[in-house]
Amino acid sequence: MSAVLKACLAFRKHRTLLECPLKYSQEKDVLNDVSADKTVSQANVSSPETVVNTSDTIPVDLSGVTSKREIDLQDFVIPDAPLIPQKIYIPEEALTCSDLDIMWYMPTGETLKCSNLTSYLGWIFETLTYFHSFFPWWGSIMLLTVIARTLTFPIMVYSQRKTTALANIMPKMKEYQECLQESTKSGNHLDMVKYSNKLVKLYEDNNLTPKKIAMQNLVLPLTQLTVFYSIFRTLRKMAQYPMESMKEGGLLWFNNLTIMDPTFALHILTSLTIYGVAKMGIEFGNQTMVNSGMSKVLQYGLPPLVFLGSWWVGAPNAVFVYWLTSNVISMGQVVLITRPSVRKYLKLPPIAPLAAKKPAPLTWSSIKESAKERYDSFTVNNVADPRRQQRKLFDEAGIGPIKKTYKYNPTKTRSVSKQ
């Protein structure tokens, strides 16, 4: 019993040394005694049942015990790296907008309890999958494009109505603006008020204001940009997943809608249609930009920019099917609303013929001149609203300090000197 207890006490001392190196300084004396004699001695070890005499020494072999620094690293085995988890493929019938990572534009902000119909992009996804039950993917995308362009057509008519009204008064408005600029530079306040009132009356007769002009020029582009990006993101995520049925959902040379067209034919066709949209939109839709340097920038700058941008992001064929269809419909709508019978039915004002003018050459100076004209026009429009200026002066007079227009304070009595 005594020998076993002594061996256990010795092993406990050495295990404590290996597991807790910080206690080495506290047990240094005891460890030196044990290592020198290779013995372990205890004074008296007693228990309620047995009294052990520890006067005898028992040799203990410590050759197999090594310090922490002497452990051979070859004894340790590094486990293999875990395998990369495989992507779980979900059938197309069970896909949700969260699986495609199109949980964007959430009205409620909840992504855990939402269904496809609580996301704006989910509506597009559900509509496409519903159309796909009757048509191939290329037909479903084209049908969705036709519906989207039809729903935004009233906004296009509204923008065309305001743009045409502005284009019809543009010659007279430019005349007043030039006179107002000259009177402002010369400091002729009488002419400033005169031409400002003429501009205000011209705007009121045509139900236009500078703020309305700025807003109406942004309504149609912002609407089309929102619709385009929503459908673009949905189609791109569906192609990146990818949905197996879209790999054979195209036609002609772009049968696989999940990859980019290797021939770049769709890129070229889309760029050409964008050039047509820019040219026709400037000539028929926004006549205020005709013969300006900015129109040339849009016509010749957008197509190569679209080509390079779509190649850079790696847009799949499904996106180009939508983009190309949308551009063709846009050009058709522009041609349609230029017909007099259609304009009469839609209650659009007739387009006034523009004076024949040779287009300015596209140079850097012409672009700067066009930008300067637009800035000057914006500045003059702000100055041309005298009622806003009068209201501003009236408010400043009500809350600002009283201007001194007298030599003495009339509220205080003056002492009259006696002669």
Written overview of the protein:
With 419 residues, this protein is mainly alpha-helical. The protein has a domain of 210 residues. Helix content is 57%, strand content 1%. A two-stranded antiparallel sheet has the order 1-2. A hairpin with a 4-residue loop joins strand 1 and strand 2. The protein is flat, with a radius of gyration of 42 Å. Keywords: Membrane, Mitochondrion, Mitochondrion inner membrane, Transit peptide, Transmembrane, Transmembrane helix.
Helix and strand arrangement:
Blueprint: H1 2-19, H2 28-37, E1 44-46, E2 51-53, H3 120-132, H4 137-151, H5 153-168, H6 170-186, H7 189-205, H8 210-240, H9 265-285, H10 293-313, H11 317-337, H12 340-345, H13 364-383, H14 386-399
Keywords: Membrane, Mitochondrion, Mitochondrion inner membrane, Transit peptide, Transmembrane, Transmembrane helix
Membrane topology: Multi-pass membrane protein
Domain Membrane insertase YidC/Oxa/ALB C-terminal: 137-338
List the helices and strands in order: HHEEHHHHHHHHHHHH
The outline comes out as flat
Largest sheet: 2 strands, antiparallel
Structural class: mainly alpha
Please bin the fraction of helical residues.
55-70%
Biggest sheet: strand arrangement: 1-2
Number of helices: 14
Spatial gap, N to C terminus: 137 Å
- Kindly state the number of beta strands: 2
Low-confidence stretches: 20-27, 36-52, 104-117
- From the alpha-carbon coordinates, what is the Rg to the nearest angstrom? 42 Å
Oligomer: single chain
Share of β-strand residues: under 5%
- Give the integer mean of the pLDDT values: 70
